[in-house]
Amino acid sequence: MDEKTLLLQQWASCLDEEDWFPPLEKVLEDITLEQAIWKPADGSMNSIWELVCHLLFFEKRFLMRFLGETVNEPLAENNDSTFQLPNETLENWKETKQEYFYVHRELGKILAESDHDDMYRQIPKEDYPLVLELKSLAMHDAYHIGQIVFLSKMQGAWPEKRSF
Questions:
Q1: Is the Cα torsion angle 126, 127, 131, 132 positive or negative in sign?
Q2: Signal sequence span per UniProt (predicted)?
Q3: What tens digit of pLDDT does each residue of 119-145 get?
């Protein structure tokens, strides 16, 4: 198996293909607004929605940089500010999820259509080429998907029986 095929499989497993952990699209499928903004009483963790915003920030920024649209890339003062929510409405929760799914799929399409040179070309404002950046983003996604599942379980929002 070549590195592109391996990375495409990793990328898909973060969003919509079941693997060793549940894909984010399935994890978020039945999460309500109230569950999305919930945090443990001690405030020690981000909410599900904050985690999705964080994932979206880094994927969208990389997509804009890859496309050479650095003028449009999202900005943050620091890592903590990447977790900020828009107004807490059901519509905004749905929009955040849909935007994340869209950006993730767009990056997957770019990878699928890339040749070797494109996979290894220097990206503006990035330390690594496409192939290495998407590998890191996939690992980052998997880490935070675990947190999202944990938060779901803490709220009793995780079904007893799932397909994964």
A1: negative
A2: none
A3: 998 888 888 899 999 999 999 999 999
